[in-house]
Design a protein that fits this description.
452 residues, alpha/beta, Rossmann fold, binds glutamic acid
């Protein structure tokens, strides 16, 4: 494969040589560069000002030790990161991922994607991401608290409400944000909106919990409507069963669809009657149990063990697929299975869940495809609304936040579709989202001069 532009190809080659051990990061950059060929050709000032060389280098990477004591009294050591990728249009903004697979490549790919996603929301937020290779699975509440406090004991000196505002991601929910918020407040003696995804009792926003999953469905709804279709009566498969998947289930069901399958890293459940949102919410948010316990509540459902990266779920027949688990969970073969089974639309709730081969398969077969940067931007957009509420020291109603979120998702769809059309790639929302997200950041970087 080659990028059809000499400047972009040479910047990419240099990056690949310097970061040969960061495959996820290179995958994310390659996709954006491929989309930007017509933009770079039309606007020579991009090359003249070294915008692409600059945009692929994080403004700052903080990598630190996180040591903590487990319940048995043993000292544990994890690696922590915060990558402050780009602040051209606002304070760094992005989640903290806690998962054993976390390494610098994963955080860099997520941080890079966040730049364009945050720009698409239309709100003033730069791109950042962080996390640790800490595995929250099976840890006691006290262990989670000690880890989070230790993590924040280093992180606090690098963040702030006007500098960098972290939030949740895989493994980081309201509980973890609470422990981190408490520690930040203790260390700084400041009660500020330094984190989003906070509890409602400490400055959190209504509808933030629901936002990413709702947003994915609002985006899907726009794609379907533009094609003269709707959610009504459709069978939906949602991979994952975390925060994004749970609320995507709720909204898809509200919009008239039936969610027939959901998964975790051990397997997937199938319920042709429609997976009950309340049961999934109880299992995951209250019991913190595995998805197979769904059968204890709904014995007519079935469970299939599937440890091999959970790709079995893509063999379930459906009209709409929402990958909401993790990166590269949907490969070329899975995409082909979905196409063979008649899928009409796919929107990404997770970050970069489809491999490049999968995206190509969807595009070639005329499947409507909503890329992560656009489709899952509702989470960070609502984080932006949480920041606004914190700055104004007031809180909005659920409906006010939800309606604003809905409007933002509609705009993202319209802007991505328009950018794709403007550059001769009508219907290609991957290109459209990358171009629309890039344009604002690029213009801000040009306006501010070469400072980094
Ligand atoms: N982790 C989420 C994302 O991937 C949300 C980030 C945020 O709310 O800052 O966009």
């Amino acid at each position: 494969m080659a990028i059809n532009n000499q400047y972009l190809q040479s910047v990419y080659n240099g990056l690949a040589a310097r970061n040969a051990h960061e495959p996820e990061f290179l995958q994310a950059v390659y996709e954006v560069f491929e989309s930007l060929v017509p933009v770079v050709e039309k606007r020579p000032e991009i090359e003249k000002n070294g915008v692409m060389e600059r945009i692929v280098e994080p403004e700052r990477i903080v990598n630190f030790r996180v040591s903590w004591v487990d319940d048995a009294g043993k000292v544990q050591v994890n690696r922590g990161w915060r990558i402050q990728f780009n602040s051209a249009i606002g304070p760094y903004k992005g989640g903290l991922r806690l998962h054993p697979s976390v390494n610098q490549s994963i955080i860099k790919f997520l941080g890079f994607e966040q730049i364009f996603k945050n720009s698409l929301t239309g709100l003033p937020m730069g791109g950042g991401k962080g996390g640790s290779d800490f595995d929250p699975k099976g840890k006691s509440d006290n262990e989670i608290m000690r880890f989070c406090q230790s993590f924040m004991t280093e992180l606090y000196r690098h963040i702030g409400p006007d500098t960098d505002v972290p939030a949740g991601d895989i493994g980081t929910g309201a509980r973890e944000i609470g422990y981190m918020f408490g520690q930040y407040k203790r260390l700084r003696n400041e009660f500020t909106g330094v984190l989003t995804g906070k509890s409602l009792v400490s400055g959190g926003s209504l509808a933030r919990t629901e936002a990413t999953g709702y947003g994915v469905c609002y985006f899907m709804d726009e794609m379907l409507k533009a094609a003269g279709k709707s959610f009504e009566g459709k069978a939906v498969v949602i991979s994952g069963s975390g925060n994004v998947a749970i609320y995507a289930n709720q909204k898809a069901t509200q919009l008239g669809a039936k969610v027939v399958a959901m998964s975790d890293s051990n397997g997937f459940i199938y319920d042709p009657a429609g997976i009950d949102f309340k049961v999934i919410k109880e299992i995951k948010e209250v019991k913190r149990a595995r998805i197979k316990t769904y059968l204890d509540y709904v014995p007519t459902a079935s469970y299939t063990e599937d440890k091999d990266g959970s790709k079995g779920i893509w063999g379930v027949k459906c009209d709409i697929a929402l990958p909401c688990a993790t990166q590269n969970e949907l490969d070329g073969a899975s995409a082909q299975k979905l196409v063979d089974n008649g899928v009409i639309a796919v929107a990404e709730g997770a970050n970069m869940p489809s491999t490049p081969e999968a995206v190509e398969t969807f595009h070639k077969n005329g499947v409507l495809f909503g890329p992560a940067k656009a489709a899952n931007a509702g989470g960070v957009a609502t984080s932006g609304l949480e920041m606004s509420q914190n700055s104004a020291r007031l809180s909005w109603s659920f409906d006010q936040v939800d309606e604003t979120l809905h409007g933002i998702m509609k705009n993202i769809y319209a802007n991505a579709a328009a950018a794709a059309k403007e550059y001769g790639m009508e219907g290609n929302l991957v290109a459209g989202a990358n171009i629309a997200g890039f344009t604002k950041v690029c213009d801000a970087m040009l306006w501010q001069g070469v400072a980094y």
